Automatic annotation (TrEMBL):
This is Uncharacterized protein. Residues 35-113 form the Inhibitor I9 domain. One of its GO terms (molecular function) is serine-type endopeptidase activity. The keyword Transferase does not apply. Residues 1-23 form the signal peptide. Keywords: Glycoprotein, Hydrolase, Protease, Serine protease, Signal. It comes from Capsella rubella.
Length: 780
């Protein structure tokens, strides 16, 4: 989900249109038909043609003719699971929902997009001959499937120099279309397909001939090209963005193969990019067939969300089937932070990603007339703005004219207020559009620059035409305002921006990064992990770039997601037999809780605070450590079934989702026993005992001892305190007893539990909240 391009989530509802009785039934059906997804759960036959024929038969029996069934069918989902998308009236959808084999029938819905130095910062440098990159040949045998806006194949990041033959498990291909054919693919970009039927069925006014978008895998937006670069782009040296971000651009797994599945389309009349759930599900279905090792999905919806067995959350349903086939699914956590409970893509089989900053700052000195120097943030590369009049537009108290110091409303001020001056304004908005709007207004009025005071932590982008626009936080903005009000002739000087890299610049969870707790299942910690997602330099389409090299900086959990996908591709290349849960565990339990320099990680917001598990999950990804975690918290189908039972999902829905009869135990097992690499207890009264199981993936004969840092006001006891692994014992369970001395409802307190053999430290977060008042109310 791109953070800085406004998108609208459109939920397509089945409309009942009351027509004049003289109109024919056929005309009525045409008006009322909408795309519905008919989900049948796990497929019951391995032959895709047989599965598709069964879908036709079901529609035929509903609609009355083979021709109508064929015309109604939009997609047949036949590889990873069984189901289809079809154009149905509301009454037809209701009728087919009553068929015993049908799990759910829901109307199509729409998702939106969630967007150099990353790999050096995370310790993945090819210069070290013994690191993860070289051990895995930079992921050459891994295939990363990207579900997004398409790909710009001419970009240098898709060159296949020095890359060997295509992995033998690849079964996909490249689909021709507008300005795209199979010759655009190579040994790097090995697959490219597009899915538009769901989108077209719900946007009948869309004119494919006149649209700016390409009816093919080619990328108009640039988002898909950008995220593909981060995950698995080839080495491209000597790239510079406005002279500030310079160096080599590459993906985390720079020899991994990329397969693009385009599902997002540009609506010219609304200026939004829209992604149909029906198209996304078909893309995931095809990717499972094609042989991808990891699916990278920088898309998502907003809260409130649907439950994990609800097909209305197409990504969650498709991801479940992908994970059962050994494909790790990595999704953006969303850009609705810093508010709590905003994280999305929260199913426990998905790796959900938060975004952090890098150790990079674009420092821009602002010198006031009293010689005070303030370091703002900007991407300004123009000439220094010498001492110039500085103004904050406000009513002096003796005028009837309009004045506004709000960045979005600067245009209401008279030009005389701003002409030949640098203007200070304030904004509560997190979006770069506010800065761009302020810069345009000041420039149009004849001003020379703008200083934008806003909440800290928002990403920086250059203003149009390299107009001087510098961001400061509200505190510094207020300091500047007080100087203006106290000085008879306030002046300011703005210097050109400089890039600072390394230890002086602290790592922070980005303000926009969506936060936990999980609003669907509070006991499931989300997000899982964090990666850099602020001002990330990567490739884009040449028709949207700000320079002729085809590279741009973007920010969002969209950009953090493919960073994790790249790490997953490396781990999969090293450990082909690891399950998606084992890979997730390795990433989470070895993550940095501090930045790579040992400094604490803060979470941006109001107020700024130390980051906790609801900000960054396990922490900041540490690829080298994740390659050799020692122990993992693994999960399989039976674990997911037990989770769904404990979460209270319907047995029938679970049975059809997993493809076999499921009877939940009575009493149900506790959701707290779900074998996650975390412990989250949202409603502790007195005490609780839960179980976890660890699998040895390190040295055969190993002994681990436990180290506990209990949350404040809680007692944590672990039995046994020592775990012994050998050739006969590869899995060992332990119990954790947690009790509290708190007598009131509390917020969450945080601690940790670590198993250590002196080489490997396998750490999980312990997050606990008491809910004594609710229990007291229930008992009385």
């Amino acid at each position: 989900m791109r953070n800085y391009r406004t998108s609208i989530v459109v939920v397509v509802l089945s409309l009942v249109i009351f027509l004049n009785v003289q109109r024919s039934f056929v005309a009525q059906a045409i008006v009322e038909r909408k795309v519905h997804i008919v989900y049948l759960g796990e497929k019951q036959h391995d032959d895709p043609e047989f599965v598709t024929e069964s879908h036709h038969q079901m529609l035929w029996s509903l609609l009355g003719s083979k021709e109508d069934a064929h015309e109604s069918l939009v997609y047949s989902y036949r590889h990873g699971f069984s189901g289809f998308a079809a154009k149905l009236t509301k009454s037809q959808a209701k009728k087919i929902a009553d068929v015993p084999e049908v799990v759910h029938v829901i109307p199509d819905s729409f998702y939106k997009l969630k967007t150099t130095r990353t790999w050096d910062y995370l310790g993945l440098s090819a210069a070290n001959p013994k690191n993860l990159l070289n051990e895995t040949n930079m992921g050459a045998q891994s295939i990363i499937g990207v579900i997004d806006t398409g790909v710009w194949p001419e970009s240098e990041v898709f060159n296949d120099h020095g890359i060997g033959p295509v992995p033998s498990h690849w079964k996909g291909g490249c689909e021709s279309g507008e300005a795209f054919n199979s010759s655009h693919c190579n040994k790097k970009l090995i697959g490219a397909k597009y899915f538009i039927n769901g989108f077209l069925s719900e946007n009948e006014s869309f004119n494919s001939t006149e649209s700016l978008d390409f009816i093919s895998p080619r990328d108009l937006d640039g988002h898909g090209t950008h995220v593909s670069t981060i995950a698995g782009g080839s080495y491209v040296p000597n790239i510079s963005y406005k002279g500030l971000a310079e160096g080599t651009v590459r993906g985390g797994a720079s020899r991994a193969r990329i397969a693009m599945y385009k599902v997002c389309w540009y609506l010219d009349d609304e200026d939004i990019t829209s992604c149909s759930s029906a198209d996304i599900l078909k893309a995931m279905d095809e990717a499972m067939h094609d042989g991808v090792d990891v699916l990278s999905i920088s898309l998502g919806s907003d809260v409130p969300m649907y439950g994990e067995t609800d097909i209305r959350d197409g990504i969650t349903t498709g991801a479940f089937h992908a994970v059962l086939k050994g494909i790790t699914v990595v999704c953006a956590g969303g850009n609705s932070g810093p508010e709590a409970q905003t994280v999305t893509n929260t199913a426990p089989w998905i790796v959900t990603v938060a975004a952090t900053t890098l150790d990079r700052s674009f420092a821009t000195p602002i010198t006031l007339g009293n010689n005070k120097v303030i370091l703002g943030q900007a991407m300004y590369t123009g000439p220094e703005v010498g001492f110039t009049s500085l103004v904050y537009p406000e009513n002096p108290g003796n005028s009837n004219a309009n004045f506004s110091g709000t960045c979005e409303e600067l245009s209401v001020n008279s030009n005389l207020t701003m002409v030949g001056k640098v203007v200070l304004c304030f904004t509560p908005s997190p979006y770069s559009a506010s800065a761009s709007s302020a810069a345009r207004s000041v420039k149009k009025a004849g001003g020379l620059g703008v200083i934008i005071a806003r909440q800290p932590g928002y990403a920086i982008r250059p203003c149009p035409d390299d107009f001087p626009c510098v961001a400061v936080d509200w505190e510094l903005g207020t300091d500047i305002l007080l100087y203006i009000r106290s000085s008879g002739l306030p002046v300011v000087k703005i210097k050109t921006s400089r890039t600072l890299i390394g230890q002086p610049v602290g790592t922070k969870v980005a303000t926009f990064s969506s936060r936990g707790p999980n609003s669907i299942a509070a006991a499931i910690l989300k997000p899982d992990i964090a990666a850099p997602g602020v001002s990330i330099l990567a490739a884009t389409t040449t028709n949207t770039t700000f320079n002729d090299q085809g590279f741009i900086m973007m920010s969002g959990t969209s950009m953090a997601t493919p960073a994790i996908s790249g790490v997953v591709a490396l781990l999969k290349a090293l450990h082909r037999d690891w399950s998606p849960a084992a890979i997730r565990s390795a990433i989470v339990t070895t993550a940095w809780r501090t930045d790579p320099f040992g400094e604490q990680i803060f979470a941006e917001g109001s107020p700024r605070k130390l980051a906790d598990p609801f900000d960054y999950g396990g922490g900041l990804v540490n690829p080298e450590k994740a390659a050799k975690p020692g122990l993992v918290y693994d999960l399989g189908l039976e674990d997911y079934v037990l989770y769904m039972c404990s979460a209270g999902y319907n047995e029938s829905s679970i049975s059809q989702l997993v493809g076999k009869a499921t009877i939940c135990s009575n009493p149900k097992l506790s959701i707290l026993d779900f074998n996650l690499p975390s412990i989250t207890i949202p409603n502790l009264k007195d005490e609780v005992t839960l179980t976890r199981t660890l699998t040895n993936v390190g040295p055969l004969d190993s002994v681990y001892r436990v180290v506990v840092e209990p949350p404040l006001g809680f007692q944590v006891t672990v039995e046994p305190k020592t775990l012994v692994f050998n050739s006969q014992t590869k899995r060992v369970s332990f119990k954790v007893r947690i009790s509290t001395t708190h007598k009131i409802n509390t917020g969450y307190y945080f601690g940790s539990l670590t198993w250590s053999d002196s080489v490997h430290n396998v750490t999980i977060h312990v997050s606990v909240r008491t809910q004594i008042l609710q229990n007291y109310y229930d008992e009385n």
